[in-house]
Amino acid sequence: MENSTLSPVFFNDDCYPWLYETVKKEHYSKAFVIVDSNTAEYCLSIFLQQLHTDVPVEVIELEPGEEHKNIETCIQVWQTLADLGADRKSLVINLGGGVITDLGGFVASTFKRGIDFINIPTTLLAMVDASLGGKTGVDMGALKNQIGVINNPVAVLIDTIFLKTLPPEQIRSGFAEMLKHGLVYNKEYWYSVVALTNLTNDDLDIAIKQSVEIKNTVVKEDPTEKGIRKILNFGHTLGHAIESYFLENKNRNILLHGEAIAIGMILESHISMQQGLLSEEEYREIKTVLLSVFDKTLFTDKDIDAITELLIHDKKSEFGMPKFVLLTETGKAVINKTVDKVLINKAFSDYEK
Ligand code: NAD
Ligand code: ZN
What we know:
Elements (H helix, E strand, L loop, with lengths): L8 E3 L3 H8 L8 E6 H6 L1 H7 L6 E6 L8 H13 L7 E6 L1 H13 L5 E6 L2 H7 L4 E6 L2 E8 L4 E4 L9 H18 L1 H10 L6 H19 L14 H13 L8 H18 L5 H14 L7 H11 L12 E6 L2 E6 L3 H12 L1
Parallel strand pairs: 1-8, 2-3, 2-4, 4-5, 5-8
Antiparallel strand pairs: 6-7, 9-10
Bound molecules: nicotinamide-adenine-dinucleotide (NAD) and zinc ion (ZN).
The site of nicotinamide-adenine-dinucleotide has 31 residues, from α2, α5, α6, β7 and α7.
EC number: 4.2.3.4
Protein name: 3-dehydroquinate synthase
InterPro entries: Dehydroquinate_synthase, DHQ_synth_AroB, DHQ_synth_fam, DHQS/DOIS_N, DHQS_C
C-alpha cells in the first residue's frame, strides 16, 4: 500500500492534456468524481467541460465540512462505488478541498485493497498542502485524522481558476499553511507570503508553486514521517487540539483548519522562545504577522485545560504529552522537543495579551 515516490503535480493549462491522455478506456473502466455540495456547484461543470474522455463518468456528491470527514461517510462512498459497479480498474477523482482529498484518497486506497485516485484540489489549503504528500484519512469523533493510510495519488492537478469562488476566510486558511512552509523551511518564502497576505494577484500562482515545492522536497526526503517531515507539523500539535476542541463544543464557532493552525503557530513560537531557541524579536514578528491575518480567539482557563487534555490523544503522542516541533529561527525548525505544561499555559497567556 505504501508508495514513497512523489506524485507528479501539474498546474493550470498543463492539467487537462495530462487528464486526456490518462483517463482513457485503455487505462480505466470507469471514473468516479467525488465532490461536496459546494464543489458540485462551483467546480464540477468547469472540470467536466475540460474532461474529454471515453470512460463512463459518475459523480458522488457528499455533504461539505470537517464534521463529515468520518468513517460513516466512507461507508456511504464505498457502498455507492459498489452499487455503481466500481471495479479494480476504476479511477477516483477527488474534486474538492482537503476534506474531499483526505477522505476520497482513503476511500480509494482501501476499496478493493486500493484503486487509483487523482487529486484536484479546489481550496488554497488543499493546493499547497492537503492534496500533496500522500496522507489520507478521516477523523474519529472529534479526534483528527485518527484513521488513515499513506498512499499517493496518480497525480495532483492544480488549477487556480477554482480559487475564484473560494470565500476569503478559506483563502486565509490556506495562507496559514503557506506561512508555515516559510516558518519551518525558508525565511525568504515567509516574507514573500507575508507580502501576499494583503493582495490577491498573479503572484499567488507563483507562491502556490513554491509551497508545493517546499512540501514535496520535505516529503521526498522522509515520506513516512520518521524525521524531517515532522517539521510540517509545526503549529499542528496545539492547532489540532484547538481544532478538535472547537469541533466538539457545538456552542463555540467552528474554527477553520488554517485558523486553528495559525493560533498553534503563535503558541508554539512562544514556547520556542521560552525554551531559548527563538529570539524574542522573531517571536514578536511572527505573532504580529499572524494576528494581522487571523482574528484573535478568546480562551478561558477551562478551554485551555480541555485543550491540554486533548493533546494527550494526539496521534503523535507516545507516552502522555506529544513531542513538539519548535523554531530556532524564522525558516528553521527542530523536531521531537519535549514541552512542559507550564510553558503551554504561559503561551496562552501571552497570546491573549
Ligand atoms: P474543506 O475541504 O472543508 O473546504 C473548505 C470549504 O470550501 C468547504 O465548505 C468546501 O465545500 C468549500 N469549497 C471547496 N472548494 C471551493 C471552491 N473552489 N469554491 C467555493 N467553495 C469551495 O477544507 P480545506 O480547508 O480545503 O481542508 C481542510 C482539511 O484538510 C482538514 O480536514 C485537514 O485535516 C486536511 N489537511 C490534510 C493534510 C494532508 O497532508 N493530508 C494537510 C493539511 C490539511
Ligand atoms: Zn495543516
